[in-house]
Amino acid sequence: MKFSFSTKGWHDFTFTDFLNTAEELRFSGIEIHNLSGAVFSENGKQVAVGCLYSGGGMVGEVGHMVIEKGGDPCNCGRCGCWEAYSSATGLIRMTKEAMEAHPESLLHKFAAENGGVEGRTAFDAAEAGDETALAVCKQFVEYLAAGVTNLVNILQPEVLAVGGGVAGAPD
Q1: Are 48 and 152 in contact (CB under 8 A)?
Q2: From CA 169, how far away is CA 113, in angstroms rounded?
Q3: What are 58-65's contacts with CB under 8 Å, separation 24+?
């Protein structure tokens, strides 16, 4: 996992590099006095820095907190998990569902150009002005925000860094 903070001129540093930096860091004017409250996310995998959790099974698997009661099945066997809605897999599923319901959507064109539906298909079509794709992206971001809000409420991090493809998606 690599991080970049262009506002500070930091590019391509690793998580270990980050943890080995000075105890007090500044990110866009936010002072961090310790790293115990930092949360990082990339491609649906979260790390709570400075918080050691032990146990068996799915301890710390925040992607499996339910955000949609009775929702879509998750690969863990439960239904409505955050991961089922805010991962690339969830985005692809929602995009395919929208394509079935809206054969006129530009989603079909973008999927065909890329050899199938990818995580970025809905964002590319939305950027091109497709209303169906825009609705998919809005729904995806709402689910992502619900999970992030839960993490913030539980962990109260000083820093929250989101990486992966979605972090680079257009507004």
Answers
A1: no
A2: 19
A3: 62/147, 62/150, 62/151, 63/87, 63/147, 65/147, 65/150
DSSP 68: S
Distances (CA, A) of 149 to 26, 37, 132, 155: 23, 15, 26, 10
pTM: 0.69
Under DSSP, the state recorded for 32 is E
Residue 164 CA, chain-centre distance (Å), reads: 7
Strand partners, 30: 27
Dihedral sign, Cα of residue 152, residue 76, residue 133, residue 69:
negative
Residue with tokens 């809605």: 85
- pLDDT, one tens digit per residue, over 117-165 is 999 999 999 999 999 999 999 999 999 889 888 888 887 777 776 766 7
H-helix segments, 38-106: 82-86, 88-101
Q: Are 85 and 162 in contact (CB under 8 A)?
A: no
Query: Tokens 């409250």 — which residue?
Result: 37
Give the 3-state secondary structure of residue 75: coil
φ and ψ of 163, to 5 deg: -125, -170
